[in-house]
């Protein structure tokens, strides 16, 4: 009857423990309940210790205990496989020890540091018998319950261990529920914080406070310096966070430490901050596009000719004076456009870089775009100033292949003339694979763009038709002879031929063309026709 009564008592106690464990979701309360329950269920007096596995340190740490020096135990950290607790944690099976020899064997791999605190923690007593029960749920071991006995007269039994196993199973479920609750609580807290951060940045967007205020708020939240960079350069990838719109990178945030070293909430704040920055950049780009369009309208007015009053307004905008001269330059990509059409910020960055370079040289240029060309109108163009501008652009955009067409210097009312010349120059540069073409430096080549092509062909045919019957050496002789300004001696030396041979070739050409090189009109007509012939052949090639 007594044994049956004990069993019924334990069964009732276990039910009470189950109710007690399910009432609380706080891990500290759960563990204290386990200790109380264990002392009431075990007939043999013992010392109860609970270890829990720490995911961060990957060690078993003291969580709760009875009749121990808690301060000493809190300094213990068992590795999986170390001592009795570590072995049971790895095997996830309960273990009963009834002899001191077996206990000592299992504890012999305990580190000296852990043993020092452990021996102090159990108040320097010798363990006579003990058992360890893992706290396991769904094959996950959360820790273990250790029950120690320091009396030879009272030895633990397998039944004692089985009772604690039931408690440990209930404890594992309670811990699992507590973890789920704490996880939900933490996520809910993070959600509230995230929402609060979102609202702060949203207010900045509504108020239009600008990127500087967004950065300032972000620095306060993450408690770390932040730098925004418009330019896309090579940085330590771990210390940056890109500001992205679709497939385009608009800029980046730079930090003093790696992005992954920030806390979860700091990362959320950084991500939240990137949205108003991206919106601000898109807004600024829209304003920039309007400004570029307005500049083009001003240019069109100057091109078309306007009243003195409207001209004065236009000149006030560009900060020019009425009696100034201007010069037009057109920039275009050699093999591809200067910016990609689907890249919102690329065009803005390129134009703004040209503006900064121009300003650094003291030039108040009017800069705008037409399709994929950049138009630069330079006022009061001093000698070599345009070439210095080109030089600085090439240094800044050293990986970009750009061609430049330059019109002549004109007064403001004849700006359209310089513009049309720049267009012709850019066309000539593209056709002849040249980097820079200045219209004023072109010679007879201009006629290829100014005169009807049929008229040019007719003129060349009339003047040179009989030259085509002569062999290549005569053509080469003429090229050198013209280049050296009819100097017979230098021409012969350059061609490595005798003076008589040169004389023969020149006479042969004169006879074929029925002209005299000494006759000024014949010579001018011939040189023009021949230069057109050479230029035309380059064009065809």
TrEMBL record:
SMART domains: GAF
Top-level lineage group: Bacteria
InterPro entries named among the record's database cross-references: CdaR-like_regulators (IPR051448), CdaR_GGDEF (IPR041522), GAF (IPR003018), GAF-like_dom_sf (IPR029016), PucR_C-HTH_dom (IPR025736), PucR_C-HTH_sf (IPR042070)
One Pfam family recorded for the sequence: GGDEF_2
Boundaries of every GAF domain copy: 26-185
Family stated for the protein in its record: Belongs to the CdaR family.
Name the UniProt record assigns to this protein: Helix-turn-helix domain-containing protein
Lineage: Bacteria, Bacillati, Bacillota, Bacilli, Bacillales
């Amino acid at each position: 009857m007594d044994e049956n009564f004990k069993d019924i008592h334990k069964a009732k106690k276990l039910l009470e423990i189950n109710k007690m464990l399910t009432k609380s979701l706080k891990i500290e309360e759960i563990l204290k309940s386990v200790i109380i329950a264990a002392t009431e269920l075990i007939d043999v007096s013992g010392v109860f210790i609970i270890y829990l596995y720490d995911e961060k340190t990957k060690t078993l740490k003291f969580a709760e205990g009875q009749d121990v020096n808690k301060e000493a135990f809190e300094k213990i950290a068992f590795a999986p496989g170390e001592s009795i607790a570590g072995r049971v944690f790895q095997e996830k099976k309960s273990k009963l020890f009834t002899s001191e020899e077996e206990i000592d064997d299992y504890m012999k791999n305990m580190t000296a540091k852990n043993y020092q605190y452990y021996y102090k923690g159990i108040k320097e007593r010798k363990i006579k018998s003990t058992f360890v029960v893992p706290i396991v749920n769904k094959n996950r071991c959360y820790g273990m319950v250790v029950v120690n006995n320091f009396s030879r007269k009272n030895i633990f039994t397998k039944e004692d261990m089985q009772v604690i196993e039931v408690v440990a199973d209930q404890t594992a479920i309670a811990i699992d529920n507590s973890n789920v609750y704490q996880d939900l609580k933490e996520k809910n807290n993070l959600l509230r914080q995230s929402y609060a951060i979102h609202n702060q940045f949203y207010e900045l967007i509504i108020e239009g406070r600008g990127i500087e205020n967004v950065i300032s708020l972000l620095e306060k939240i993450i408690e770390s310096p932040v730098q925004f960079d418009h330019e896309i350069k090579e940085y330590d990838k771990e210390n940056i966070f890109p500001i992205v719109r679709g497939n385009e990178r608009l800029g980046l945030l730079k930090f003093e430490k790696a992005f992954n070293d920030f806390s979860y909430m700091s990362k959320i704040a950084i991500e939240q901050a990137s949205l108003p920055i991206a919106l601000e950049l898109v807004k600024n780009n829209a304003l920039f596009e309007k400004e570029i369009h307005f500049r083009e309208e001003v240019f069109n007015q100057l091109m078309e000719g306007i009243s003195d009053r409207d001209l004065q307004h236009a000149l006030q905008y560009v900060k020019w004076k009425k009696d100034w001269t201007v010069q037009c330059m057109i920039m275009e990509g050699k093999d591809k456009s200067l910016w990609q059409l689907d890249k919102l910020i690329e065009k803005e960055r390129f134009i703004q870089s040209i503006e900064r370079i121009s300003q650094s040289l003291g030039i108040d240029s009017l800069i705008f775009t037409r399709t994929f060309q950049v138009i630069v109108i330079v006022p009061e163009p001093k000698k070599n100033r345009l070439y210095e501008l080109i030089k600085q652009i090439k240094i800044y955009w050293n990986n970009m292949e750009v061609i430049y067409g330059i019109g002549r210097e004109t007064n403001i009312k004849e700006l359209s003339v310089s513009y049309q010349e720049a267009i012709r120059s850019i066309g000539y540069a593209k056709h002849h694979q040249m980097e820079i073409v200045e219209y004023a430096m072109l010679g007879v080549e201009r006629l290829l763009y100014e005169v009807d092509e049929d008229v040019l062909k007719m003129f060349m045919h009339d003047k040179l038709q009989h030259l085509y019957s002569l062999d290549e050496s005569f053509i080469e002789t003429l090229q050198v002879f013209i280049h050296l300004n009819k100097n017979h001696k230098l021409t012969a030396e350059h061609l490595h031929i005798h003076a008589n041979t040169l004389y023969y070739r020149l006479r042969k050409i004169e006879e074929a063309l029925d002209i005299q090189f000494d006759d000024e009109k014949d010579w001018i007509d011939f040189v023009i026709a021949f230069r057109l012939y050479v230029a035309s052949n380059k064009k065809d090639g």
